[in-house]
Amino acid sequence: MDVIEAVRKRRSVRQFTSEPVSDDALRSLVEDAARAPSGGNLQPWRIYVVNGTRLDAMREFLATQPPIDEIEYPIYPPELSEPYVTNRFTVGEMMYATIGVGRNDKEGRAQQFVRNNDFFGAPAALFCFVDRQMGLPQWSDLGMYLQTFMLLAVERGLGTCPQEYWSVRSRAVRTFVGAPDNEMLFCGVSIGHVDDTAPINALRTERMTLESFATFV
User: Fold this and answer.
1) What does the mean pLDDT of the chain come to?
2) Rg of the chain over CA atoms, in angstroms?
3) Which of 54, 60, 169, 193 has the smallest C-beta neighbourhood within 10 Å, fewest atoms?
4) What is the model's pLDDT at position 123?
């Protein structure tokens, strides 16, 4: 598969099949993704993988924990300006439209949001932590690791869904995976085989035009 094909095929999968993913496949992905660049070669990512029966156990554990922990960081800036407000609004409307949930259907939207806790039915998940001494440049390194991981997953026939949602349940996640207090949870990634029959997986998000975000000087 060409890199550009993987880039174009990658999407946030919100419904997976029950087909398992082997530990060997996950180990290979996590290791190969570590070829991602990082400033000073710090390699600041700290990865925890939960697969199969352990993820089932994690689902059960999460159900016993508070639904929201102390939030580690704001997922979005408190006051977004344009075009970011419109971009966020549009993708939300597009996603809920695929499953027939209207803007005023608060219960339907809440039910879909809660599906984050089920990893959208995925058989495996990855959690990406970073040492608390790290700064913003190292957070960008995490993004490069995660993008590399997700593109490699596409190449190998798997789908992913990065979930910053887990920042609101960081304490529960840290407890289950055994991460030390000096490590901060950035996000989780659900991993598995894409359910192509699920309407929500038909979502293809829009991208701004080249002229709206790029300047050739």
Assistant:
1) 96
2) 18
3) 60
4) 98
| Helix ranges restricted to H, 99-207 | 106-114, 136-155, 170-177
Token pair, residue 55, equals: 């993820």
Cα distance between residue 123 and residue 53, in whole Å: 8
> Is 0.85 surpassed by the pTM of this model?
yes
Residue 54's SS3 state is: helix
State the alpha helices, DSSP H only, in 10-83: 23-33, 53-62
- Would you call 201 exposed, middle or buried from its count of C-beta atoms within 10 A (0-12, 13-18, 19+)? buried
Q: What sign for the dihedral angle of Cα 46, 49, 54, 59?
A: positive
| CA nearest to 188, candidates 60, 48, 61, 54 | 48
Q: Quote helix, strand, coil % in the chain, to nearest 5.
A: 50, 15, 35
* Nearest CA-CA partner of 83 in 214, 217, 216, 213: 213
Summarised one tens digit per residue, pLDDT across range 113-141 is 999 999 999 999 999 999 999 999 999 99
Give the pair of three-digit tokens for residue 65. Answer: 């924990």
Residue 103 has pLDDT above 90, yes or no: no
* Cα(191)–Cα(21) distance, integer angstroms: 8
Domains plus CATH for the chain?
3-78+118-202 (3.40.109.10)
| Identity of the residue numbered 107 | E
